[in-house]
Design brief:
Layout lengths: L25 H4 L14 E5 L2 E5 L6 E4 L10 E2 L2 H11 L18 H12 L3 E5 L6 H11 L8 E5 L5 H12 E2 L3 E2 L2 H8 L5 E5 L6 H9 L4 E6 L12 E5 L5 H12 L5 H14 L3 H27 L13 H5 L6 H5 L2 H6 L3 H12 L10 H6 L6 H7 L3 E4 L2 E4 L3 H7 L6 H16 L6 H6 L1 H11 L13 H15 L3 H18 L2 H17 L3 H17 L3 H18 L17 E3 L23 E3 L13 H32 L175
Parallel strand pairs: 1-8, 5-10, 5-11, 6-9, 9-10
Antiparallel strand pairs: 1-2, 2-3, 4-7, 12-13, 14-15
Helix pairs in contact: 3-4, 5-6, 5-7, 8-9, 8-10, 14-16, 14-18, 18-20, 18-21, 20-21, 20-22, 21-22, 22-23, 23-24, 23-25, 24-25
Length: about 850
């Protein structure tokens, strides 16, 4: 058999009863070239306070009270090996390429010793110096000197764009081992109070009360703060020592320049460096960049000398006016070029390095990680560009990443590097969207690149406009992909920023479904943070938008979160069920009559004694578009109002006919109870109406009814069973104080009697011919007796004929305040209440 031409016998279908070993298909040998099935959505469960949060990137996160079995154990501190690994991860990555020489820290020994002494005493120190003064380099050396001062060692944090609350969480995760656990505020403060460490916090952005909050929460920590002079100062009661870092003197500046160049300076270069020291006020960064300019000049001169030495072009005749001495001599940069060296330095770098600078300018100064540069730039060796930029002093370390150095972004923008900023941000957003959604990328890696992702969102969100069908907004797609990863990676400040920019991008793009998702996630985030009012507002907005889209699954997730908000706040829900959703246990108050009132023919319907609680169960109807939700709701309200008016009219007609009828010994009007259609079940021939809720409570003012479907002639269905409804143990069921029927008599009136001409019900009636008392009598504290009262019947009651059953008993007084009163008084002068 040809191995390339498979037959049925190869797969054991030749009928000989033996199944030879099957050869794997070609697609399994080359999985990268086959078509993959779509990856499943990654859901992550984590504990936030006393909530169990399931991050669902499809329908929205789900939140519930954490079961006791799911609660994590108390966090424990990292051991020395794990702490060393955490410290290594907090450092910026080493740029690829040849190792760069480490420059010495000159003229900073006095400040270094002073900082170590203050920290050894447990004091908090703030090191203030301008950008480019070597502040970060000094903090690194002091951190090495203080490694053994505190029981929890040295913790490195970065405060660039961080608040005091976010820094407390960063400190907690740097000391404690708590995977997929985010404690609430109280639990967080309990844990950070037990931390005893030297905290080196660089690039601090706040002061005053926010800094006081950070220091008060960590009484066992000694902080070494690095800040620029424009950051607000600490409060007077904070007790923070201040150490000011200035520029270098001229001799130290020349010494640093020689170390950067790697040789001694010529007299011309020394004079040039002196002018630079005066212009730059001795900032070390300017001398590092000046050393890069001199190294580039040396390479240019060495390149020209190599061409002359090997005689590559010696056979070519010299051009007119060509001077070999001028070509070999590369002049020193001017003082203006040395003061703003970024454009000149960038012009002599590789194309990949210049492309990386364009991306950094487009992202607001954030330099993408070196692993992303080959894909962004389009060069497989573009990761080496970071080493070129670091050697020239164009980038500086900020925490575990790199940013453009101080002043470099402004200089590059003036040189035209920001002309294609929108295109660069759009390309970065497309790349990060694909990368953040890839199954192999962990949430922790996405959180490490959060600043670049958020910078791309900040650039593209204001440029978002309405999108046509089939198109996609880069900002919206990036926010939708990155937000769940930020939540799962416990970088919740980035999660909130991504959600807010995503909601704005969805609004500008006109995408209602994505708006609903972002508002839902913002509500979940607010609920986890204890902001119940904001959570309610965001979730109600999301439920409303998803209800307009008939998104049942998303609506259910939103309503569950709203129920949790209501449980925490003690405020009941006010939202009704959405179309397509069946909520059998939800009850809402509804009006018992139309806005125009009830016709005067039925006075007992005008003032019900208590609002009726109606079980509202919407039917599963066809899905509606986003624009037709309110119109459909209005049409349903009109239809319901019309059906209610028709039901009232038909019911009144039936009651009137039953009261005036004299042919049936058991008229239907005498058998009407609280709910005519609720006395039978689905198995006894009725229309399947729901039984009244709270029958055992005996509350006549609360009735739970459900409108029945109209019959073929348009009238509502009624029960065929004439048996009167009775309560437990054979006692009569209490009549509804807001009932629409008049209390009929159970005895057959004589032929000469006439029906009452007024709408008032009769107050006396003959005793029933059956053994059970009539159901139309109102409830009293004692069961009715068969003996008539001693008082004379009211004069306004209609006359009745005598019968063999004896005199008719007087009807007991009703306890319902809303029932109309009789005009005739009783012998004791009181007015009886009748229905």
């Amino acid at each position: 058999m040809d191995p390339n031409t498979r037959g049925p016998e190869e797969y054991g279908h030749d009928g000989d009863g033996t199944a030879p070993r099957q050869r794997p298909p070609r697609e399994s040998l080359t999985p990268d070239f086959s078509q993959h099935a779509p990856a499943l959505a990654r859901t992550v469960q984590l504990v936030s306070g006393d909530f169990l949060l399931t991050v669902n990137p499809v329908d929205g996160s789900e939140i519930e009270v954490c079961p006791p079995a799911e609660r994590p154990a108390r966090p424990v501190k990292l051991d020395p090996a794990e702490r060393a690994e955490a410290e290594r991860a907090a450092l910026p990555p080493v740029p690829p390429g040849p190792a760069q020489p480490t420059l010495p820290l000159l003229a900073r020994q006095e400040e270094r010793e002073q900082l170590v002494r203050l920290l050894a005493r447990g004091r908090t120190v703030r090191l203030t110096g301008p950008a480019g003064s070597g502040r970060t380099r000094l903090l690194d050396l002091v951190a090495e000197d203080c490694a053994d001062l505190a029981p929890d060692g040295v913790v490195r944090l970065n405060g660039f764009g961080r608040t005091s609350g976010e820094l407390l969480y960063d400190l907690f995760y740097a000391v404690y081992k708590a995977p997929l656990h985010r404690p609430d505020r109280d639990e967080l403060l309990t844990h950070v109070r037990e931390i005893g460490a030297v905290v080196v916090l660089d690039d601090l952005d706040f002061g005053g009360a926010a800094l006081d909050e950070l220091l008060e929460a960590t009484p066992e920590c000694a902080f070494l703060l690095g800040a620029t002079p424009d950051v607000p100062a600490p409060s007077a009661d904070a007790g923070v020592e201040e150490v000011v870092l200035g520029g270098l003197d001229r001799a130290a500046g020349l010494d640093l320049l020689e170390h950067a160049v790697g040789r001694s300076l010529t007299e011309e270069e020394s004079n040039w460096a002196g002018d630079l020291w005066f212009e730059s006020e001795g900032l070390p960064l300017r001398f590092v960049q000046a050393g890069a300019l001199l190294r580039q000049r040396d390479r240019l001169r060495a390149g020209a000398g190599a061409v002359d030495e090997f005689g590559v072009f010696e056979d070519a005749p010299p051009a007119d006016g060509y001077d070999a001495a001028e070509e070999d001599e590369v002049p020193l940069p001017s003082l203006g070029e040395a003061a703003a060296p970024a454009p000149l330095l960038a012009s002599r770098l590789s194309a990949s390095a210049r492309a990386t600078l364009r991306f950094a300018v487009a992202l607001g100064g954030e330099v993408p990680h070196q692993a992303h540069l080959p894909a962004l730039v389009g060069d497989t060796h573009a990761d080496a560009a970071l080493g070129e930029l670091a050697a020239c002093g164009l980038v500086s370390a900020v925490g575990s990443r790199y940013r453009l150095a101080a002043g470099v972004s402004t200089q590059l923008e003036a040189a035209g590097y920001a002309d294609e900023a929108e295109a660069g941000a759009r390309s970065a957003a497309q790349h990060y969207s694909w990368w953040a959604g890839h199954p192999s990328v962990t949430p922790e890696r996405v959180c490490a690149e959060a600043d670049a992702l958020l910078a791309a969102l900040a650039v593209l969100t204001p440029l978002t406009g309405p999108i046509a069908e089939g198109e996609e907004s880069p900002a919206l797609h990036l926010a939708r992909t990155a937000a769940p990863a930020f939540a799962a990676g416990l970088h919740w400040s980035a999660w909130e920023r991504a959600l807010r920019t995503g909601a704005e991008a969805a609004r500008l793009a006109g995408d209602v479904a994505e708006q609903a998702y972002f508002h839902h996630e913002l509500g979940i985030l607010a609920l986890c943070g204890g902001q119940l009012d904001r959570a309610r507002a965001e979730l109600e907005t999301s439920v409303g938008l998803r209800g307009a889209l008939s998104d049942k699954r998303g609506t259910v997730a939103g309503r569950r979160a709203l129920a949790l908000v209501a449980d925490r706040s003690g405020t009941p829900l006010t939202l009704g069920p959405t179309a397509g959703e069946e909520v059998p246990d939800a009850r809402y108050e509804e009006s018992a009559s139309p806005a125009e009132g009830v016709p005067a023919a039925f006075p007992t319907l005008q003032q019900p004694s208590a609002p009726a609680l109606v079980t509202h169960r919407s039917s599963q109807g066809p899905s509606r578009k986003a624009g037709g939700g309110l119109k459909g709701l209005a049409r349903r309200n009109l239809v319901a109002a019309g059906a209610g008016a028709l039901l009232v009219a038909v019911l009144g007609t039936v009651v009137t006919l039953g009261a005036t009828s004299d042919n049936d010994p058991n008229p239907p009007s005498g058998q009407v109870g609280v709910d005519p259609s609720a006395s039978q079940g689905p198995s006894d021939g009725s229309l399947g109406a729901e039984r009244p809720v709270n029958d055992s409570d005996g509350d006549p003012g609360v009735v739970t009814t459900r409108p029945t479907e109209p019959g073929p002639d348009g009238t509502p269905g009624t029960s065929d069973d004439p048996t009167p409804t009775s309560g437990p143990s054979g006692s009569p069921s209490p009549s509804d104080p807001g009932s629409t029927t008049n209390p009929p008599t159970t005895s057959k009136p004589p032929a000469t009697s006439k029906p009452p001409t007024t709408s008032k019900p009769p107050t006396t009636s003959k005793p029933p011919t059956t053994s059970k008392p009539p159901t139309s009598q109102p409830p009293t504290s004692e069961p009715p007796t068969s003996q008539p009262p001693t008082s004379a019947p009211p004069t306004t009651s209609p006359s009745t004929s005598d019968s063999a059953s004896g005199p008719a008993p007087s009807a007991p007084a009703s306890t319902t305040a809303s029932a109309p009163q009789s005009s005739a008084g009783t012998p004791d002068g009181s007015q009886p209440l009748v229905i």
